[in-house]
UniProtKB/TrEMBL annotation:
<comment type="similarity">
    <text>Belongs to the ABC transporter superfamily.</text>
</comment>
<dbReference type="GO" id="GO:0016887">
    <property type="term" value="F:ATP hydrolysis activity"/>
</dbReference>
<feature type="domain" description="ABC transporter">
    <location>
        <begin position="27"/>
        <end position="277"/>
    </location>
</feature>
<dbReference type="GO" id="GO:0005886">
    <property type="term" value="C:plasma membrane"/>
</dbReference>
<dbReference type="InterPro" id="IPR050388">
    <property type="entry name" value="ABC_Ni/Peptide_Import"/>
</dbReference>
<dbReference type="Pfam" id="PF08352">
    <property type="entry name" value="oligo_HPY"/>
</dbReference>
<keyword id="KW-0547">Nucleotide-binding</keyword>
<keyword id="KW-0067">ATP-binding</keyword>
<dbReference type="GO" id="GO:0015833">
    <property type="term" value="P:peptide transport"/>
</dbReference>
<feature type="region of interest" description="Disordered">
    <location>
        <begin position="1"/>
        <end position="22"/>
    </location>
</feature>
<dbReference type="GO" id="GO:0005524">
    <property type="term" value="F:ATP binding"/>
</dbReference>
<dbReference type="InterPro" id="IPR003439">
    <property type="entry name" value="ABC_transporter-like_ATP-bd"/>
</dbReference>
<dbReference type="Pfam" id="PF00005">
    <property type="entry name" value="ABC_tran"/>
</dbReference>
<dbReference type="InterPro" id="IPR013563">
    <property type="entry name" value="Oligopep_ABC_C"/>
</dbReference>
<protein>
    <submittedName>
        <fullName>ABC transporter ATP-binding protein</fullName>
    </submittedName>
</protein>
<dbReference type="InterPro" id="IPR027417">
    <property type="entry name" value="P-loop_NTPase"/>
</dbReference>
<dbReference type="InterPro" id="IPR003593">
    <property type="entry name" value="AAA+_ATPase"/>
</dbReference>
Amino acid sequence: MTSTLAGSGSPAPARRPPLDPNAPVILTVEDLKVQFPTEDGLVNAVSGVSYELRAGQTLAIVGESGSGKSVSSMAIMGLHDPKRSRISGSILLDGQELVGAPQKTFQRIRSTTAAMIFQDPQSSLHPLKKVGPQIAEAYLAHHKVSKQVAAKRAVEMLDRVGVPNPDRRAKQYPFEFSGGMRQRAMIALGLVNDPKLLIADEPTTALDVTVQAQILDLMNDLQREFGSAIIMITHDLAVVAEIADFVLVMYAGRSVEHGTAQEVLANPRNPYTWGLLSSVPSLTADVGTELHPIPGNPPSLLNLPEGCSFRPRCGFSDRVPGDRCAAELPEFRQVPGEPGRMTRCHLEDPAAIFADEVAPTLE
């Protein structure tokens, strides 16, 4: 499915079509914060996340569980209970501000402007309704057409996503589909109204490697056909290498690195990203070679540590003079001399540390 970086076991980006710098901006997220009041305190699930995505581009949001990947994307779709969450900042979707928007706005944009595919299609598809009518129902909700036209559209979408015998399959229930076929049906459901933005939350996690590759190839093909912008939420760097144009790495609710997939996977500038890459098994390593997982656990979002949230797990904080890592939260700043690249770290020369000390361990 993917190649590896020269001399290393790290996944290397697949060849993607050239990006159009003049493509319209579909999504702009600025200083997004998502908080959940609880009896134990305020959960700071997302803290100040910002990024931009244009038509035809794919952004992979990467990080461990609890990093804020899914929470930030669910805010775009309006899936957080406004009575139990606090959302601030700005989310501009196709020019429309969504922070503070009423539920009627989200009901209108879901499926037409933005759609979301979840990790488990079994729980997303209604078990007692046939697959075709479920897709047709989503089409009918936003188009004034007959049920016959909607049913035909459902069959067309099942055929487009590679479901064999779509006429017959449209009349079957979700439990009659394999895991890969259910995920294809979910993609058909997500794309039936030609949304400008597609959010895929761990869509291949439960699939075997062969089916995973097929689903990723399908998403690449559909993106070229429909021109949608895609947000891929994942912890799998092989998936990132296969589908992403840009990568946003998150940790403890904050952005810690952003850049093109080539830049982030080949020459990362943040110790957390180094840890993620070091955790990937090498295809060229000897049998029995030990992995190098990130030590410790992510911090509680109820009580984040002072200074850099990654400091308790970072093996390089002693390279920073004084107690800056413990006392001062690093700014999310541009990497000097590399426009568009962002990192959150106090290290003065992370490029040299990666080249001299980290990259050799990935071989």
